[in-house]
């Protein structure tokens, strides 16, 4: 069931309120929406020099959001009570030298991470907002397309067009795993046991996160899988593809449910309680689906 449509270029659910979603629209407005009451609160308006937002992440404590932008900008915005002015902290400003692609916070909220089109992965200490040192040898050789943290041990995994995923611990790459095809998206299961990778060749690989052993190979899309997300209970995997479909895969059974659309999906997000799903479409409104 569709609840509401909002034009946006990036979105994220609140970690503490499953009815709240933060979006950035084409006019660079950052808004917080209540999807049940349709109430909208303006958090901030980005500068035109930042470029269009490409990714947004909500801090685990709900007190700030981080935005990556097309012109190599990453900013942190504080979230206060309605009517309060958001304080803005600039973490990165590359002056259009590269594109910010993805942002995420670690589960403990202590670390912020951004992926860039030039293959770099940048880390910040959230409290001091200072950049953490990273070896230049740890960068990807092509664009970073996905970031995900394990809730189990805080491991960071980055996915790239260089056909690899990298496992990070303590700000260092501890393992690089080749997949032989561009990796468009990546997500840990809620337990941190499994890792799903959406690939350019239309397939989805589900790996054991500890051993990187392949557990399942899902093949039903007809084009690149641009985003993957696990259900809140970890029993299902959702995937969005350039083939204009969104699929729900059972991980305890042997079925897949398909929703056909008339446009390409860019991203999907599952609410913390698992009661709703948000799908971001290319140059179109976000569509919210409520759990039956």
From TrEMBL:
InterPro entries on file: WD40/YVTN_repeat-like_dom_sf, WD40_PAC1, WD40_repeat_CS, WD40_repeat_dom_sf, WD40_rpt
The UniProt record lists the keyword Repeat: yes
On whether Transmembrane helix is a keyword of this UniProt record, the answer is no
Q: Which domain of life is it from?
A: Eukaryota
Q: Which Gene3D superfamilies match?
A: YVTN repeat-like/Quinoprotein amine dehydrogenase
UniProt keyword annotations, A-Z: Repeat, WD repeat
> Which compartments is it annotated to reside in?
Mitochondrion outer membrane
Pfam families associated with the record: Beta-prop_WDR36-Utp21_2nd, WD40
> How does the protein associate with the membrane?
Peripheral membrane protein
* WD repeat residue numbers: 103-134, 137-168, 218-251
Give an example GO cellular component term for this record.
mitochondrial outer membrane
Q: What family name appears in the similarity comment?
A: Belongs to the WD repeat MDV1/CAF4 family.
Q: What does this protein do?
A: Involved in mitochondrial fission. Acts as an adapter protein required to form mitochondrial fission complexes. Formation of these complexes is required to promote constriction and fission of the mitochondrial compartment at a late step in mitochondrial division.
Q: What is this protein called?
A: Mitochondrial division protein 1
């Amino acid at each position: 069931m569709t609840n509401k449509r909002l034009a946006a270029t990036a979105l994220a659910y609140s970690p503490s309120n499953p009815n709240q979603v933060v979006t950035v629209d084409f006019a660079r407005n950052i808004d917080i929406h209540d999807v049940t009451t349709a109430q909208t609160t303006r958090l901030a308006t980005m500068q035109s020099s930042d470029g269009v937002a490409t990714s947004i992440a909500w801090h685990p404590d709900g007190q700030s959001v981080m935005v990556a932008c097309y012109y190599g900008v990453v900013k942190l915005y504080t979230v206060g009570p309605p009517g309060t002015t958001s304080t803005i902290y600039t973490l990165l400003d590359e002056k259009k030298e590269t594109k910010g692609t993805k942002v995420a916070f670690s589960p403990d909220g202590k670390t912020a991470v951004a992926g860039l089109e030039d293959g770099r992965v940048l880390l910040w200490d959230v409290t001091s907002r200072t950049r953490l040192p990273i070896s230049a040898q740890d960068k990807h050789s092509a664009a970073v397309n996905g970031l995900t943290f394990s809730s189990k041990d805080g491991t960071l995994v980055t996915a790239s067009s260089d056909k690899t995923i990298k496992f990070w611990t303590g700000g260092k790459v501890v393992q690089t795993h080749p997949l032989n095809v561009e990796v468009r998206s990546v997500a840990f299961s809620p337990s941190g046991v499994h890792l799903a990778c959406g690939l350019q060749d239309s397939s989805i690989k589900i790996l054991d996160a500890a051993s990187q052993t392949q557990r399942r190979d899902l093949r039903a899309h007809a084009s690149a899988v641009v985003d993957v997300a696990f259900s809140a209970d970890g029993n299902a995997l959702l995937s969005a593809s350039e083939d204009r479909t969104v699929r729900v895969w059972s991980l305890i059974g042997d079925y897949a449910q398909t929703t056909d659309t008339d446009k390409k999906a860019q991203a999907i997000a599952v609410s913390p309680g698992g009661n709703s799903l948000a799908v971001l479409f290319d140059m179109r409104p976000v569509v919210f689906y409520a759990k039956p």
